[in-house]
Amino acid sequence: MSATDALKKALPTPVKRAIGETLDAVDRAKQWPAAALHPWRQESIRRIRALKDIHREERCFLIGNGPSLRNTDMSKLKGEFTIGLNRIFLMFPEIGFQTTYLVSINDLVIEQSAAELQTLNMPRFFSWRARKWLQPAENLHFLWTTYTGPRFSTDLTARLWEGATVTNVALQAAYYMGFQEVVLIGVDHNFVTQGKPNTTITSIGDDPNHFSGAYFGQGFRWQLPDLETSERGYRLAKKAYESAGRRVLDATVGGKLAIFPKVDYNSLF
Description:
By secondary structure, the chain is α/β, with parallel strands linked by helices. Helices cover 33% and strands 15% of the residues. It has one domain (11-268).
């Protein structure tokens, strides 16, 4: 064991945590100039500010991509405000409509879906890192999202914590746009594929974890979920919404998430 490793092992956990948080803060500080001052981000910030509270007192459905969507009558969502995530566009031809908004922040998802994501025409929100694969376009907004620094941001132009899932970023976007009620569907919070959280793997067959076997189909690279961190983000979201007199409901059919109040999907219409 090296002297450095021995020192790390000897340090009390609170000290190691403090050091880690300090290093994370330094890394975020290094990201700030481009994330705040780059012309693409400046334009995104201008556009995002125009979205502030445009849906005050309204409700939206935040659509996850779990297998439960196969047991959800999606036709009921025509005429509703909807926020889709990642590769939800695979479902558009089948359901006959596009989501009102789309959010995607994961590097692997964006890199491998860039062609489709670029050509969509609804308002779209992508991580600032996505500039590697996507070009500025009408209705395309770059968000500054980070892996570290847990918080729920009520300002979509500021730094957003990803909370290990795009759903947490979408909840922050919905809050900023003023939605009074956000209803989750397809957020199964349950994965057949198991392994160490955040590990990158390559699919070797049809995807059993999403609404379509082609979602992360054979050859697609993706990261195993970190459900514990996701739940931390969900709790922050729940507190923020409730503090503002708003609410997040979970209408996912058979979902395993136990953070938000459950509601029967069909009872909402």
